Amino acid sequence: MNEAAKLRNIGPKSSAWLRQVGLRTREDLAEAGPVEAFMRIKRAGFKPTLNLLYSIEGALHDCHWQDVAPERRAELVEAAEAAIAGLPAPRHKPPAGPVRTTVLTADTVAERPASDSD
After folding, report:
1. What CA–CA distance (Å, rounded) separates 30 from 26?
2. Residue 72 is inside which H or E element, if any?
3. Could you tell me if 17 and 43 are in contact, meaning their C-beta atoms sit under 8 angstroms apart?
4. Distance between CA atoms of 81 and 50, rounded to whole angstroms?
5. Compositional bias (Basic and acidic residues) at which positions (predicted)?
6. How far is Cα 28 from Cα 23, in angstroms, rounded to an integer?
7. I want to staple 4 with a disulfide (CB 3.0 to 4.6 A). Which of 15, 64, 83, 98 is the partner?
């Protein structure tokens, strides 16, 4: 986000995440709002913390993220948790089984049964 780099609280990593989810200007960010911006980043596979949510809110109001009122923080967290609850459950694949390596030597090649293609 070109302009986001100039926004208060938005550092290079957050700015890159915002750009990657299509939020390139302050206007884009204001239109989406803090919760939607946070959720876009989360849905994109990044791992944002609640500090990013507060930082976006602070950036939109030109205040430090720690100055966001506790009541507003609670509202943001509640909205984000509701949105997160609506996301599909992550699909975790079981870990792969052990890898077995077979080393072919002259002895093991001689022991293999002959096939029609040999």
Report:
1. 6
2. helix 70-85
3. no
4. 10
5. 109-118
6. 5
7. 15
Query: Does position 1 have pLDDT exceeding 70, yes or no?
Result: no
**pLDDT tens-digit profile of 60-110?**
999 999 999 999 999 999 999 999 888 776 666 666 667 666 676 766 656
Counting the structural domains of the chain, the total is 1
CB 32 within 8 A of CB 53: no
Q: Is residue 33 part of a domain?
A: yes
CATH of the domain at 42: 1.10.150.20
Note whether residue 41 is domain-resident: yes
- The structure tokens listed for 112 are 């293999």
**Residue 114 included in any domain:** no
